[in-house]
């Protein structure tokens, strides 16, 4: 088996979520490659090469991949998917945008929000807002999965994978990047938080919610 992990990038740097997705790939078993696609992503590729268990980091460095739009990334993954039995990404905005397109283009089912691995073709996923867990089996020759990163411990950065260039450049005529507006917050993203604290009616009123910050 061979697995391709789509790296998460943040401002051109490797996001921590990637180490968790690699851990999910290790649970499946087989050779693991990481695809780093973007513009000016050599530093991210070098960081990905240090992830434990990664065999090869494949780098697609081109302006067409700069904003990780679904159309060019999906087309790139279609070109590369023939070498793999599984393609994984985090259940992030990018992963949820790109992998469904890959699954549709390859005419396979996608498994979303995977939180557990039972075997190479059987997985656990969260349903009904986390109130139930479904065990699903895929008979597709290519398994396409998005992974809940909090369900898997991150791998260490003690690896030494080889880095190779991917020369595939696709033409994107279906979409264009307009702008990006990021909300400013001094708190971690909910999906990556180690501890989540919530409050409800017991807080009495809105002013008391500040007590949760302690």
From TrEMBL:
InterPro entries: ETF_a/b_N, ETF_a/FixB, ETF_alpha_N, Rossmann-like_a/b/a_fold. Residues 3-181 form the Electron transfer flavoprotein alpha/beta-subunit N-terminal domain. Signal peptide: none annotated. The keyword Transport applies. It comes from the Bacteria. GO terms for biological process: fatty acid beta-oxidation using acyl-CoA dehydrogenase. One of its GO terms (molecular function) is flavin adenine dinucleotide binding. It holds the Pfam family ETF. CDD domains: ETF_alpha. Belongs to the ETF alpha-subunit/FixB family. Heterodimer of an alpha and a beta subunit. This is Electron transfer flavoprotein subunit alpha/FixB family protein.
């Amino acid at each position: 088996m061979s697995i391709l992990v789509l790296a998460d990038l943040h401002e051109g740097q490797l996001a921590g979520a990637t180490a968790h997705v690699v851990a999910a790939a290790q649970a499946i078993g087989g050779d693991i490659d990481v695809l780093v696609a973007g513009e000016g992503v050599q530093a991210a590729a070098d960081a990905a090469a240090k992830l434990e268990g990664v065999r090869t980091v494949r780098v697609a460095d081109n302006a067409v991949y700069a904003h990780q739009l679904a159309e060019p990334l999906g087309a790139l993954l279609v070109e590369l998917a023939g070498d793999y039995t599984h393609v994984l990404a985090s259940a992030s905005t990018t992963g949820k945008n790109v992998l469904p397109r890959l699954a549709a283009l390859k005419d396979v089912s996608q498994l979303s929000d995977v939180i557990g691995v039972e075997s190479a073709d059987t997985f656990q996923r969260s349903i009904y807002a986390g109130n139930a867990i479904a065990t699903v089996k895929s008979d597709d020759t290519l398994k396409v999965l998005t992974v809940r990163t909090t369900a898997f411990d991150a791998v260490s950065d003690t690896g030494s994978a080889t880095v190779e260039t991917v020369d595939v450049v696709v033409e994107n005529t279906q979409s264009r990047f307009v702008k990006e507006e990021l909300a400013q917050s001094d708190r971690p993203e909910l999906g990556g938080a180690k501890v989540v604290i919530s409050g409800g009616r017991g807080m009495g009123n809105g002013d008391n919610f500040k007590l949760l910050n302690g």
